[in-house]
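Page 42, continued from yesterday. The earlier attempt failed because a stray header line got pasted into the input along with the sequence. Redoing it now with the clean sequence only.
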Amino acid sequence: MDAKEFRKRGREMVDYIADYLENIRERDVVHNVSPGYLKDLLPEEAPKDPENFDEVFKDIERVIMPGVTHWHSPYFHGYFAPGSSYPSILGDMLSDAIGCIGFSWVTSPACTELEVVTTDWLGKMIGLPEEFLHCTEGPGGGVIQSTASETVLLCLLAARTRIVNKYKKENPEMNEVEIISKLVGYCSTQANSSVERSGLLGAVQMVKLIPDSNHSVRGETLRQAIKRDKDKGNIPFFICVSLGTTGTCAFDNLAEIGPICEEEGIWLHIDAAYAGSAFVCPEFRHYMKGIEYAETISINPHKWMLINFDLSVMWIRDSTLLVDAFNVDPVYLKHVNQGKVPDYRHWQIPLGRRFRSLKLWFMLRSYGVSGVQSYIRKHVNLAKQFEKLAREDGRFEIVAEVVMGLVCFKLKGPNELNEKLMEEIIEDKRIFLIPAFDKNVYFLRFAVCAERTNSRDVDYSFSVIRDCANNVLAVHSKTPLKHTPVVVDIDQQPRYKGKLISHNHYSDDEQEI
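This time it went through. Structure tokens are written below.
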């Protein structure tokens, strides 16, 4: 493919993408294929000779689209919002064309410096304290990671290095393995599964804290857990506070937890992957009260800020804690301007990195702060609309307070009734939802996700849910369901029908939700 054909095919692809997104309502939101479907559509070996791109283009619809779940459909309400916008897509196109691997400033200065500027822009937009920004004299600043999952692991490893070095200095008789075996981190039972996974990867214990009736971890709960672990001879060193949990979009009590972390020398990381984008609206910033106690915070603009996957932003108060923990600096990576600007390879797990700040820059300039605020508020209002419909129906109840773009709801009745409702919605296939489980209650999550979702789409989605509920309740009235009680093991892990149910048996963005 030469430049002439690339121009032609590029225009065709842009037209195809625009048509796909503008007409996405016409596509079934859920795929209708079975595992292995693609094998029957493609040859067993790659083509020996080049094929005309016309044939490749035709196979997008024949081969790919049948197996796609359309995340940007207005009827996709499953995971948290998948970000997308035309400026963001254009930014990715340019990034792919430039193709730099921006692990240090010298490899492409624009790649590093635009990231410095745009993470500062975003930090100011959501109201972060100045010490988290590059534009101050301190060692703080922002960095673009791939996902919040990667960020949690990165912060946990940095915190582990800090505490190990501290204990080795204070207790020369203790070796590193012995210290790590005693380390304990904390998170809510409702934290994203990536937090527990980070503990496994970091070889440290992660203790799950039970939230209060509002799904929020309180300071006293943490204090008691710290005391128990200290009495056992363990070393508390890390906590991941959730601002907007995956299951119910609940907010841990940062204002209570923060002072305890400062008192105990515990690294406080804030996971605000979804809800953090909403802090661009001043009316939501009260959930950040206590942020001055945090060491790190991350949000995912690729969830709720019109940015295509992947782009997660992490801010740290003292970047030397990352650089010192992961600094491997061979001669071929050195350059004469080291120390004058960030070399982001020290701020992340991979070495290579894409020019992701381009799509953030394009989007922020195209929408402005006011445009992003309007987008967030629109989704919140649509969630309130769905909540109103569910309450007015009379057969449903709302499980958690509706704060942002998520409504947690269920039919009044036993868990099994709602499990049947979920099965009916899955079989119906007109909309896409996922369930969740908290405090022995099985419920459904309605997330407002797509940029194009409007009031009519919410009405339609509720009508589908209402139809499915009618079917389930009609069967239930003839053959009452036998309620299977949910029991809680001594380790506080809930089980339903004898099977262990994860608090996050759905994914996030790769995750991830």
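Notes: The longest strand covers residues 235-242.
Reminder to self: strip header lines before submitting.
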